[in-house]
Structures are given as C-alpha cells and as structure tokens.
Design goal:
The structure holds three protein chains of three kinds. By secondary structure, chain A is mainly α. Chain A has helices at 23-46, 51-63, 65-83, 86-90, 98-117, 127-153, 157-176, 190-200, 231-248, 250-260, 262-267, 272-298, 305-308, 311-321, 326-350, 355-376, and strands at residues 2-4, 10-16, 377-383. Chain A has a single domain (50-351), classed as ABC transporter involved in vitamin B12 uptake, BtuC (Orthogonal Bundle). Chain A is built from 16 helices and three strands. In chain A, a hairpin with a 5-residue loop joins strand 1 (2-4) and strand 2 (10-16). In chain A, helix 6 packs antiparallel against helix 7 (157-176). Chain B is mostly helical. Chain B has one domain: ABC transporter involved in vitamin B12 uptake, BtuC (Orthogonal Bundle), CATH 1.10.3470. Chain B is 76% helix and 0% strand. Chain B has helices at residues 2-33, 41-59, 62-86, 91-116, 120-129, 145-148, 153-171, 173-183, 185-190, 195-221, 234-244, 249-271, 273-276, 279-298, 300-303. Chain C has three domains: 12-243, P-loop containing nucleotide triphosphate hydrolases (Rossmann fold); 248-341 and 432-529, 3-Layer(aba) Sandwich (Rossmann fold), CATH 3.40.50.300; 354-430, no CATH class. Chain C has 18 helices and 20 strands. In chain C, strands 6-7-8-3-9-10 form a six-stranded mixed β-sheet, sandwiched between helices. In chain C, strands 16-17-18-13-19-20 form a six-stranded mixed β-sheet, with helices on both faces. In chain C, helix 13 (383-397) packs across helix 14 (413-425). The chains are: A mainly alpha, B mainly alpha, C alpha/beta. The B-C interface holds B 171-174, 176-177, 179-180, 183-184, 186-188, 190-193, 304, 307, 310 and C 80-81, 96-101, 105-106, 108-110, 112, 114-118, 145.
C-alpha cells in the first residue's frame, strides 16, 4: 500500500514485515511508553501545571529510597495480576477478569481474619499460609467459569470475564457495607475488635465500608533491615517459576501452539478444554494471590476501594507492555508503581486528582495498541520516480 | 394519595435514569451492528460528563454542553475506529485502552476544573443550566400517566432517538447497509458498500452518544462536579444491555428503563434497613444474567435466531 | 466486421486475452465468444483458466493483453461496477449472502432504486415477477439460512437479474445442487435463453455441459483447445480435450516392491458432510495396501478434501467406517489416528499444517511433543533431545532454514512442505509411520520442490509405507500411483491399476461420464510383479 503525499514527490509506503526481529516489540513498547509520557505532559499543561515540574518531581521520587519502597508496595499486587496473564494471553485467551479474580482472592484470604475477629482462632503461624492458599484457590475457581464456557460453547471470554468483574465487586460491596456481614461495625466483632481498637486508641468511623483490620500477625512483614515487603520475594519466585513453565515445559509449549493456531493445535491432538482449564486456574489463582498481597501487604482491610483501584486492569496494560514476559512484568509493574506513587504525591502537593495516573496508563495503553501496528508493518518514505 | 405520588416519583426517577442507559446503549448498538465492539463506553461517558457540565456552566447553555460532549467523545472514538477498522487491531484491547484513558482524563479534568476554575459564582449557575422534569399543573399528578408527561426534555429526545434508530436500522437503505456490514462484510463489499466508511461512522457516532449519555447524567440527573468517578459501572451495564436487547433499539428501550427502575429501586431500598445488605447482590443480577444470555446465544444452534451480528468483533480485510 | 454480417453481434467477444500471474501464464491468447441468446459452456480442469477468464469479464482482474467487446462495442471493464453497468451478472460459486437477512434484503443490497426508506413491498413484487418469468418459486420474506442451497442460488440469480443483467456468468453452479435442483436450474436457464439472455456456464461436468449448452469451449492450461457443439462430440471427445494426452514421465517409478495382502486402510461406505451441510463424500469404499501409492484423481471440490479430513480424524463422518490396521477409527480424534501411524499432509499448509509464528523447532516437534525423548516426563521438555531430533529431521528432508529458531512462516513454500513432511514422517519409538495421507502435496511448489516431494513419497512407498495421494494434477497421479481411483461429485467412479490406466477413461470418470461397475471395482486388487 502506498499513499502519495499531495503536492510533493514523495509517498508513504506501508509494507508488511516479513521477519519481526526480536528487538522490535521491545523497541516499540519503549517508544510508546516514552511517547505516552511526553504526551502526558500535554495533559499537565492543559491543567495548568508545568510538565517540567512534574517530571522533576517524579525524578526526585524515583531517587528517594522511601518513595521507591512505597512504589514497590503499590506495584506488588500489579506484579501478580500482570503475571497472571502471561499464560492465558499467550494462548489467545483474553482473560480480562483479572480484576474479579483478584477480588475473589482478597475475599477468600479475608475469611480466616473474619473468623478471628469473631472469636474463632487458629494457630498464628498458620494464618499467612492458609490465606495464601485460599486466595489462590478462590481466584482460580473464579477463572474456571469463563474458561469452560469458551471451550465448550465458544462464549466470548472477554464479555464473560467483564461481567464477572462487576459481580465480584458487588460481592465485596455486600460484605463490607454498613449492615453487611463483614462490616467492621458488625456486633459479631464487638468483643475482640473493639477491645483491640481501644488499645490503639482508635475509634470506629460510622458508615465506614470495610472489614476489620488485618491483625499484625497476618500481615506480610518487611524484609528485615529494609523497607521492602516480603511479598516481593514471592513475586520474584513466581516470576522465575512462570518463566520456566512458559519456556521449558510441555504446558508452555502447548500454550504457544494454541496461541498461534487453534486449528493446528486441535489437529496436533492438543485438548483445548483441558489446557484452558489448567491455564485459567493458574491465572485466576495468581490474580487471586494479588488480592492476598493486597490485603496483607498494602491495604490491611477489605473494602470496595480495592476494586476501584483497578489492579486487575492495570495488570492487563503491564502484561501487554511487558510482552508477556514474567520478568519484564515485574519491572514494568515497578514502573507503574513509581507512576502511581508520583501521582499520589503530586496529588498532595499540587492538588491534582489521583486519576491522572489512570489517564497516563490509558494513554500509554492506547499508544501501545496503536504501536502494535508498527510491529507488523514497516512504514517508509520513498521518492517517486517521474 | 401518598402512594400514588410515590409511584409517579418512582417512574420519573426510573425513566430519567433509564435515559442514561438508553443513550449509551443505542450508541453501542449502532457500533456493534456494523461489527465493531467498543468497550470504552465507561471512559467516554466520564469524558462526556466532564465536558458537558463545564461547557454548560461557561456558556450557560446546557445544549451546548450536550453538543460538545458528543463531539468530544466522537473525536476520541476516532482513535478506536482507526485502530479497529484501518489497523485491524484487537477491538477489545483498543476499547479497553479507551476506557482507561477516558476514565483517567475525564475524572482528572473534572477534579481540576472544580478546584481551580469553579468558584461559588459558577457553582450557583448549575441549578439554572441543568434539566428539570417538566411539571404540568393537573396532568403531572395523574398516577402513572402523569409521570410519563413529566420528564425532562432529554428523556423524550432519547426515546425518540430509540425509535429513530430502530427505524433507520430496519426500514431504511442505510440501516440495511449497516446491518449487512456487521453480518457479512464480504457480501456487503461485493454489493458495492464501503465497509470501512460504514464502520467508521457507526463507531464515531456510537462513541459520541456515549459522551452524550455522560453529559446527560451530569446535567439531567446528578450535577456533581467531583474529581471522582461518577459513571460507576453504568457504561459496562450498557454493554450488557446491548446483548440483552439483542441488538434491537426497541428492546433497548425496555431494557434501559428497566435498569433505570432497578437503580432507583436500589436507591430507595438503601433507605430501608431490611434490604440494605442485599442490594449489592441484586446489583450483580443483571451481570450474571448477561453471562447466561451470552452462553445461550453462543450455543451454535440458537445463534441464527438471535440477533448477534455475525461479524461482530472481527476485522475485515479484502484479501 | 460486424457491419457486413446480418446476424446480431455476439453478446460477448473476448479477443486475444492473456493474463499472467507471478510465475505462471494463466491465460494465453484466449479468444472466447458468446452469441446472443445462447448458453455457452466453459469446460476445463482446475487451473485451466476458466475462472480467471470470467473474472476478467466481470472486472475482478484486468487482462494484460487483449480486448473485450460487449454487443459489438469495445469496452473497458475496470471493476465489477463497470461489468454490472454493461449488463453482466455473476452467480458466484461461493455465495455472498447475509444469512440472517431475508431474500429481499439480500437482493436489493446496494441498490438505490427502492428508496431511502426501503420499499420492501415493491421489491418483493419485482422479485416475484422475475421468479415467475423464469419459472422458479421463491419467498421474498424467507431468511437465507432457512433456504436450501438451490434456493440460495436463485437468490444470487435474482441479484443479477434485478440489476438487468443480460449476460450471466454461472460459476460451477451445480456443485451444491441435488440432481433434482440441477434439473430445475436447467429449466430456468432455458427460459432465460428464450428471453434473449446469454449465459456462460462454467463447469467441469461433461454430461451437464452436453445437456444444457448450445456450444462448449474447452480450456486447458490457459489455452483454448476448441469450441464445439454438443451434436458434434461425445463425452469421450470432451474428456480428451480437457485432459490431453501429453503425460510426461519424468520420474521413473519401479514396480511395487512390497506386496502385502492385508490393507492398512479400509474405507467402507463412508459418508461425510461438507461445511455447508451437503453430502461431500457419498458411500465411498476402497482399500489401501502397504507399499503402494493409491492415488485419488478428481477435480478439486469433488469431496477429496473432506475424505482426507475424515481419515485424518479432523472431520466426523456421517456414517460408514474407517478402519486402520484392523481398528475401527471412525470419528476418532486426530491424536489417536496419529498414534496408529498416520501422517497427514494437509491442503491448508499455513493454517493447519504449520504454526506460522512459532519457530522451526517448535513446529517439528509438534505431535511428537508428548513422547519420549522429546518429553522428559509429563511436564518437561528435554531440550537436548529436541535439538538432536530437530537437526536430524531437517537433514533428512533437506529443510533449508537460516536457523531452527526462525519463525516457520519465513520459509519458502517448498521448505514449508518439507517441514511438514519432516514432522509427519519422523519416527519415534512409540510410533512408526504406516500411512501417509497427502492432499495436493505439490500445489504451488516450484519444479525442484515438486520433484523432491514426489521422490520422498516414492521412497516411503518403497519402504513399505502406504500412501494415499490426493491430487488434481492428473500427470502426478499417473506418474506416482500404483492404483488410481477417480472421484466425482463425492463418489468413486472407478478404481484402476496404473498399468490399465487410460487417460481418456480417467478423464471421463473425472467428468462424471463414466462409472465402472461395483463388481469390477472389487476385482481391482494389486497385481504382484
């Protein structure tokens, strides 16, 4: 295809790339991200803030250790929700339900805590491991339904997972609204929780939508000597395992095959139903772990805020940017963490809405999606003869 | 007598809120009938809400607000159209990007404008520029029917739009072209129809309507200028509504008003201790039913009878 | 020229048409003429150039050389719109209809005459009028998905008629019709002829051409062999014209080395549906023995693809049996059939044959990936063994690639085919190749690659592997096969041994004009040398 530039002797030629060198997707991603940041500067100008000031503050944040640690904490849940997408996206199963699986994980992880505040005890060392397991299983189960519907009846997984996201958020609302079963003002918790709060000298805020706080013993500690949460180690371990699984195992191989050609895969004897159920259980489980991290490392209570933060959707962008490489997911999540942390600080200092980070993310995503075009096609300017 | 007024109040509320769903759903029906899914509705609605109210305040004219909201959302939708129709990229990815972007930009600007540009003088203008239900002396009090005559103007416009869209899609040449593009773009292409142009227009106008719906929420329902989300999932519900109404504007009318009624019902129930807890679960019902409907429709045997455009979600290229 | 003649000028005259595609001359100086009010048949094998010629007439392609005259006037047809304006209408082989819409909506799509607000009543009236005029019945309000194939074809016909087409091109119209529907169609065509319409009837079925056409032009490999009337010729003559006599024996095929009495593949009364829900394979039975090449000749679209897919496990047969090495595998999944030793070289190389974006090594281990030594256990891949395996296979079949990490789609066509062969023929301890099902294996390959593939098939046959070769290239079938079956319209018309093979007979069978009786088929057992 060629488009002539009117009035000149040149034309823009668009041709499909025969061979996409491995570097190209990475380069395109980076260019998109940079373009996003620069264009984002325009947004700042529009709200009357000098982008230079913004960038310099971000740079300052990026070099302050406390802020960096804070950024990691924000990034942690996203690391999980983005890694969760590595396998399903590779097999062309578009799991947009990371948000919902994340929330289900948080809900399930909360169960032992709720029981605790209701007077039901468990040996303390057991809390974290059990919460971990519950989160993984709950998220995994939530991911199975769309997988099954897709394999059996070709139901569009994007629409199903989207709907399920809303359903899970509504479940959280139900549980945590004043009057709901898990709300902190619930009389069941009165005995233990109020006593605990009295010790701290804290009062309940009436009308607060949320569960009782997660007690210290059920929170993921920081790595001794640093300000970094232990969760980062879990994330790194999972990244390594995931990398290994996706490149060196049969599962990873079959996922790649299906992602390239579903017909070819069936002809090769690969059972789509079995594969997608396994992959989605793992995916939902990992996203669920993100929820576990969310309530044990970041926000130590369950509230609808966890859904509004959009960890699941952010995970989609990160996974895309990271080109589905688990290690890259960690790095890109960190980048987003810095972005969000900066947005938080900027909000306090310059009175801008928190949603500017969301806008940024969206802008980068749009540019990524558009940039995908350049991964497959080459654009050249040629001089016409005559 | 008290009860009858309550019914009217309920109806007015239901139809007013329902109009929000209706406008967005109609727009998406248009886009999907041409074969393109736009998941960015929620974001476009936020943008529309922001643009709508700001322009309305500064020009003291709500209608200019509506127009600019439509135009802005339509302009943003050009990106989506370009990505899906020309670049033939994944429609869901593009739509989601638009959602996140629109969400961020719409809410941020709203907050910024509120903090920086709106003083008490401007805020006082709001009651003057927003839309109110009409009150006709005797008629408005008639139970039920009275309510139908007591809505704000936009509600009537939206209703008319619904009928109009149905008429266009099913009774005109243009509508036939649009539907054919969404069902079998190759056949439409062979018949001489410009598939790309049809899809571009459908997506752009559809997106613009989402912006319009957002502006209507602001100007016709809750004029709250905050740096916080205001659409609150209604955009996603609109997407589900499209499926509910089987891509038919007339059924969309029913569905939208039904959902409007549900939303008002939730609001009222919240005042009552007894029901408060269950509301979130009730809110999940539409989405759960959407899943069930989707499944039913996907079962191949039934697909012919139910109106999902055959080529929905698939890019078209003239190989 | 035409001024002197008292006759009306021909409806269509295509003079000296030449059309070249990269690497092949599709049409070479073809002159084709259709008189007013005649039904003119265009006969030829696949690749003969019939569709290309008509695509030029309809404006889909442009000829490199030559001129077109419509009703005596020279014209330039740059697009289908031009063709329609000139009164040319095309009824395509693959319908372009919107399933969910009604007949009316499909027929008037793209037309401006029926108003901005659709006047469906008037359109329906017009449709009913046209239908009545030409003697067929159609309900304008019916939805396309409710109609039979024959009725859908009438809708396509109506699309052309309502645009005032006087010259109609029908591309292989009877492929999807039942015999009854075919007769109805012919009646309709004759009515149209009486009304003065000129009809071009593309087909490869000899009997039909003789039944309904006033004249028949035979194309072969881009040349016009001749134009005849049905009175002048017999089916045998047509077959000879279509298929020709020059068969080049470039590869020497030795008599069969391996003689085994039990067949490796037995197909019994097999019936298979096509994607369109029509019976594509009709009551087919045959046997294939180890160490022989069993060729199935036939025009593309006669049911061979569906037959191959059924045997490979990709398509569930409607009824009948497929027995491999004594095991009934009718309807079994591809995995099972592969395990029994069946290798499948599919028609659709890029879509089904390889994984285009995955690397060469990932492609080669496909289907073998769950077996040792490629798989270390149920979870892990053994990369060292993979490396060995892949390199060995590449060497065996001479797959030329810059690296085994290159994406498969970067390979040339011939190399892709070699890759597929390398994978399918690879042996691992749990599985030996016993039967190769090859569908159009040399289609689109250059001379070198073609020779190579044929050599490989012969090598396998000499090793004792059975080969089921499906090809539209009669030369190839004659060159390679020990026994030849001819398929036409889903049925096996006859099975002959290579020695007895008679090109004319085969041509007749391909055209549906000759059927060898069942008893004779059973007697055609391989002869021992």
């Amino acid at each position: 295809m060629a488009f002539r530039i009117p009035g000149t002797r040149y034309a823009i030629k668009v041709e499909k790339r025969l061979f996409v060198r491995r570097e190209i997707p990475a380069i395109v991603s980076m260019v998109s991200a940079i373009a996003g940041i620069l264009l984002g500067g325009l947004i700042f100008i529009a709200v009357g803030i000098s982008p230079v000031e913004v960038y310099s503050r971000i740079a300052r944040i990026a070099t302050s250790p406390t802020a960096l640690m804070g950024a990691i904490e924000i990034a942690l849940p996203i690391m999980f929700t983005s890694m969760a997408l590595v396998l399903p996206f590779r097999m062309a199963f578009y799991n947009i339900g990371g948000e919902g699986q994340f929330e289900l994980g948080a809900i399930a992880a909360m169960i032992p805590i709720i029981l605790y505040w209701s007077g039901v005890d468990m040996p303390i060392p057991l809390y974290l491991p059990i919460m971990f397991l519950l989160a993984f299983i709950a998220g995994g189960l939530w991911g199975l339904l769309p997988a099954f519907l897709r394999a059996k009846w070709k139901v569009n997984e994007i629409l199903v997972t989207l709907m399920m996201n809303t359903i899970s958020l509504q479940i959280i609302w139900w549980l945590t609204t004043p009057g709901g079963p898990w709300n902190e003002a619930n009389p069941v918790f009165r005995e233990r929780y109020l006593a605990y709060l009295k010790e701290l000298g804290v009062h309940l805020i009436p009308g607060f939508k949320g569960t009782p706080v997660v007690p210290e013993f059920a929170r993921l500690p920081r790595i001794p000597g640093t300000l970094v949460n232990v969760g980062i180690i879990i994330a790194i371990v999972i990244a390594i395992i995931l990398y290994f699984v996706s490149t060196k195992t049969l599962l990873g191989y079959e996922v790649r095959v299906v992602g390239d050609s579903e017909r070819g895969a069936t002809y090769a004897g690969i059972n789509y139903l079995k594969l997608v159920l396994i992959v989605m259980f793992i995916s939902g489980g990992l996203a669920g772990l993100g929820g576990f991290i969310g309530i044990t490392a970041y926000l130590p209570k369950l509230s609808p805020e966890i859904g509004i933060a959009g960890y699941g959707y952010a995970g989609i962008i990160v996974a895309w940017l990271a080109r589905l490489n688990p290690i890259a997911c960690l790095l890109v999540s960190f980048f987003f963490g810095i972005l969000t942390k900066s947005a938080d600080l900027l909000q306090q200092e310059l009175r801008i809405s928190r949603f500017i980070a969301v806008g940024f993310e969206g802008l980068i995503f749009i540019l990524l999606v558009l940039g995908d075009f350049f991964v497959h096609y080459r654009v050249r300017i040629i001089k016409l003869r005559r | 007598m008290v009860e009858l007024t309550m019914i009217n109040q309920f109806l007015i509320g239901a139809l007013t809120v329902g109009t929000i769903y209706l406008i967005a759903t109609l727009g998406e029906i248009l886009a999907e009938r041409s074969g393109v899914v736009n998941l960015g509705l929620e974001g476009l609605m936020e943008v529309g809400a922001t643009v709508g109210i700001i322009v309305a305040i500064f020009t003291e004219n709500p209608w200019l607000g509506f127009i600019t909201a439509f135009a802005t959302a339509a302009a943003l939708s050009v990106i989506h159209a370009f990505a899906c129709v020309t670049l033939k990229l994944n429609q869901f990815a593009s739509g989601l990007a638009l959602y996140i972007f629109g969400l961020g930009i719409g809410i941020t600007f709203r907050g910024y404008v509120r903090d920086v540009m709106l003083g008490p003088k401007e805020l006082m203008k709001i009651p003057k520029i927003r839309l109110y239900p009409i009150k006709i002396p005797v008629i408005s009090d008639i139970p039920i029917i009275g309510a139908l005559f007591s809505l704000n103007i936009m509600a009537y416009v939206a209703f008319a739009l619904g009928i109009l869209l149905w008429f266009i899609l099913f009774r005109t040449r243009i509508g036939l072209n649009i539907r054919s593009v969404g069902e079998n773009p190759a056949a439409a292409d062979a018949a001489g129809i410009n598939v790309f142009r049809v899809r571009y227009l459908a997506v752009i106008i559809g997106g613009g309507m989402a912006g319009l719906a957002g502006a209507y929420l602001m100007l016709g329902h809750t004029p709250q200028i905050m740096g916080a989300p205001i659409i609150l999932g209604r955009g996603w519900i609109a997407i589900a509504l499209v499926i509910f109404s089987f891509w038919n504007p007339l059924r969309a009318l029913l569905g939208a008003y039904l959902f409007g009624g549900l939303e008002i019902a939730y609001f009222w129930l919240q005042g009552m201790e007894m029901f408060r807890g269950v509301i979130p679960l009730l809110k999940a019902v539409p989405h759960a039913s959407a899943i069930i409907l989707l499944t039913i429709m996907s079962i191949e045997a039934l697909r012919r009878r139910i109106g999902a455009p055959e080529a929905l979600g698939r890019p078209y290229s003239r190989e | 020229m035409f001024l002197l003649s008292k006759e009306k000028p021909p409806a269509v005259l295509m003079k000296g048409i030449t059309k070249r595609f990269p690497g092949v001359v599709a049409l070479d100086n073809v002159t084709f003429e259709v008189k007013q009010g005649e039904i003119h048949g265009l006969l030829g094998e696949n690749g003969a150039g019939k569709t290309t010629l008509m695509n030029i007439l309809y404006g889909v392609y442009r000829a490199d050389e030559g001129e077109i005259y419509i009703n005596g006037k020279k014209v330039s047809i740059k697009s289908p719109k031009d063709a329609i304006k000139l009164g040319i209408g095309m009824v395509p082989q693959h319908f372009k209809l919107v399933m969910a819409h009604s007949v009316v909506e499909n027929v008037i799509l793209g037309l401006k005459e029926f108003g901005l607000v659709l006047n469906l009543k008037e359109a329906s009236k017009k449709i009913k009028e046209l239908a009545e005029r030409y003697g067929f019945r159609i309900d304008p309000k019916a939805k396309i998905w409710q109609l039979s194939m024959g009725e859908r074809q009438y809708v396509e016909l109506l699309k052309a008629l309502i645009r005032n087409a006087n010259i109609l091109i029908l591309d292989e119209p009877t492929t999807v019709l039942t015999p009854q529907e075919t007769r109805e169609l012919f009646k309709t065509l004759k009515r149209m002829k009486e009304e003065g319409k000129s009809i071009i009837f593309i087909t490869h079925k000899l009997e039909e051409a003789l039944t309904v056409c006033d004249r028949i032009t035979v194309l072969r490999r881009g040349h016009v062999i001749g134009t005849v009337t049905p009175q002048e010729v017999t089916e045998a003559d047509l077959a000879k014209m279509m298929v020709g006599r020059e068969v080049l024996f470039r590869i020497k095929r030795e008599p069969r080395k391996v003689i085994v009495e039990t067949p490796i593949l037995k197909v019994e009364n097999l019936n298979v549906l096509s994607d369109k829900g029509v019976l594509a394979v009709k009551n087919v039975s045959f046997e294939v023995f180890p160490g022989e090449i069993f060729g199935i000749a036939g025009i593309a679209g006669s049911g061979q693809e569906e037959l191959a897919e059924a045997i490979a496990g990709l398509r569930k047969p409607l009824s009948g049996k497929i027995i491999i090495e004594g095991q009934d595998v009718t309807g079994a999944p591809p995995k099972k059939i592969f395990e029994l030793g069946v290798a499948y070289i599919p028609e659709d190389r890029i879509g089904v044959g390889i994984l285009p974006n995955l690397t060469v090594w990932e492609n080669i281990i496909l289907r073998h990936h769950r077996y040792a030594p490629i798989a270390k256990n149920r979870f892990l891949l053994n990369f060292k063994s993979i490396y060995d395996f892949v390199n060995k296979r590449i060497k065996e079949l001479n797959v030329m690639t810059s690296s085994i990490f290159a994406p498969a789609r970067t390979l040339s066509g011939g190399n892709i085919q070699r890759l597929i062969l390398a994978r399918e023929l690879a042996e691992n301890p749990q599985r030996k190749t016993k039967l190769i099902v090859a569908v159009y294996p040399t289609r689109g390959l250059d001379v070198g690659a073609t020779e190579y593939v044929r050599k490989v098939l012969l090598q396998q046959r000499d090793k004792g592997v059975a080969v089921l070769l499906i090809s539209e290239d009669l030369e190839e079938i004659l060159m390679l096969s020990d026994r030849i079956a001819v398929i036409h319209n889903g049925e096996i018309m006859g099975i002959v041994s290579a020695e007895e093979a008679n090109v004319e007979e085969i041509g007749l069978m391909m055209g549906g004009a000759l059927r060898k009786t069942p008893q004779k088929v059973q007697e055609e057992k391989p002869k021992s040398s």
